[in-house]
Design a protein that fits this description.
Strand order of the largest sheet: 1-2-4-3-5-6-7-8
Number of strands: 8
CATH architecture of the largest domain: 3-Layer(aba) Sandwich
Strand content: 15-25%
CATH superfamily of the largest domain: Alpha/Beta hydrolase fold, catalytic domain
Structural class: alpha/beta
């Protein structure tokens, strides 16, 4: 009886963690679950059992919505394809490749693409595998996406030879950029990272905290089973450690009220960068694009960064 009292709860807890990990890393639900802080009663109980689910992200608009003309490119990857939109600028200063966060696709960075266009840059907006026009329906929080970044950068170097290339990412996109440099040999001319989490375990823990649940041991179980399902050690997915491989200039932006990526964690990622670096905090922002929180300041900071690090 004593053994059953220990084994049964252990098995049930791991089964719940397995379901949460599956929901967290696969886009399959017909409709999205509301954000955890807004859930109440039975809905919260249901999420505690099945996990927070998201539908497969699809592009709801195109660059024409922000007044930009574009061309669509298909980039091959080992088990499918990536879809990208290229927006050309007159006499471009550089090419900026933009990468979205978890639960999004390339239409989520259209406003940033328009801002970079105004700053005189070509842009390439890329769908990670799992959403938009790219193949698949899985999300690995920046692990496999790091390979997508490296492939997109190689495609850009081949397609627009001699062009200086900057990488821009939001949340998971930032983690994927750091992983691309540290694990896949990507060599951009500069990086701009928004809301980069320091460790996968940390940011998963914050999501349990938002539900009013203890991060330990729940976050560890979810990270473990997520890694098992996708075939990698998820505890080793630590962008703060990958940052040391980035020797090009870096600009890191974060919201002061970000519940998923605390300011101190993003600042630690910035401090770990191996090249010239700058950290800027947006006092009114949460876990959101900093451009939407303060367009004037974002444009000024990014414009200064481009001017400083372009010939």
């Amino acid at each position: 009886m004593l053994a059953l009292a220990v084994i049964v709860p252990f098995v049930l807890l791991n089964a719940l963690a397995y379901l949460h990990a599956r929901a967290f890393t696969r886009y399959a639900a017909p409709s999205a679950t509301a954000r955890p802080p807004s859930l109440t009663g039975w809905k919260k109980l249901g999420v505690l059992v099945t996990g927070v689910t998201l539908p497969r992200p699809e592009n709801s608009t195109t660059p024409t919505a922000v007044g930009l003309t574009y061309a669509t490119h298909t980039i091959p990857v080992p088990d499918g394809t990536l879809e990208a939109w290229h927006v050309a600028a007159d006499s471009p200063r550089a090419l900026v490749i933009l990468f979205h966060g978890r639960g999004g696709c390339k239409c989520a960075v259209l406003n940033e693409a328009a801002a970079f266009h105004q700053l005189g840059c070509d842009t390439l907006l890329v769908d990670f595998r799992g959403g938009g026009g790219s193949s698949g329906s899985d999300c690995t929080l920046g692990v496999r996406e790091g390979h997508d970044v490296a492939v997109a950068l190689s495609f850009a170097h081949e397609q627009w030879r001699g062009r200086r290339v900057f990488l821009y990412g939001q949340s998971m996109g930032s983690a994927a950029i750091l992983r691309a440099v540290a694990h896949h040999g990507a060599a951009p001319d500069a990086v701009i990272l928004e809301c980069p989490f320091d460790r996968l375990l940390t940011t998963v823990g914050h999501r349990f905290e938002a539900m009013g649940l203890p991060a330990f041991p729940l976050a560890r179980l979810l990270v473990f089973w997520g890694g098992v399902q996708h075939g990698f050690n998820a505890f080793a997915h630590n962008p703060v450690e990958d940052a040391a491989a980035v020797t090009c200039p870096g600009l890191v932006l974060n919201g002061a009220h970000d519940a998923w990526v605390h300011a101190t964690e993003a600042e630690a990622v910035c401090a770990g960068l191996g090249g010239p670096r700058r950290f800027e905090l947006f006092e009114e922002a949460g876990h959101q694009p900093c451009l939407s929180a303060d367009p004037e300041r974002w444009t000024r900071l990014v414009g200064e960064f481009l001017t400083k690090h372009l010939p």
